[in-house]
Amino acid sequence: MATSKIAKQTLYKELWSGTWSSGSITVTDSDKYAVFLAIADDTPLLGVRMSNTQIKFFGVVYGSSRQYIKTVAVANNGNTWTNSGTSNMGHTANGNHTASAVAAINKIIGIIPY
User: Fold this and answer.
1) pLDDT per position in the chain (114 positions), as tens?
2) What span, in angstroms and rounded, lies between the C-alpha atoms of 28 and 31?
3) Best label site of 7, 48, 84, 101, fewest CB within 10 Å?
């Protein structure tokens, strides 16, 4: 009987914690995962490895009169992640937008391994 790759890796493993909004960090064992959960300013972001060198994160939070969309683009080389751009923007019910701001990541969790 064949053993799946998922069975060989740990599901839901915390890989990194701190505060990251620019520059590079080392995310140990991240090269073993295809899907991630990041927490950015208390907002969960789903991250998907787009290629061997790109990971994209996206999350939405609803407030009383607006929704906030947070995105993070990551360039990665093995376990070294470089923040390629972050955005945190509010969309109000009347169609106006808040100014785009940097979304700081506080935790990265590996969800689904390769």
Assistant:
1) 445 555 556 788 999 999 998 999 999 999 999 999 999 888 899 999 999 999 999 998 887 777 888 889 999 999 999 999 888 888 887 888 887 777 889 999 999 988
2) 8
3) 7
Rg (CA), the chain: 15
- Report if residue 7 sits inside a domain: no
> Which range marks the domain in which residue 77 is found?
12-113
CA dist list (Å): 74 to 23, 45, 90, 92: 10, 13, 22, 27
Short-list 36, 22, 92, CA closest to 64: 92
Residue 6 domain flag = no
Q: Assess if residue 61 is contained within a domain.
A: yes
DSSP state of 41: T
Q: Specify the DSSP element, H or E, that contains 90.
A: strand 80-92
Say if pTM beats, i.e. exceeds, 0.90. no
The amino acid sitting at 11 is: L
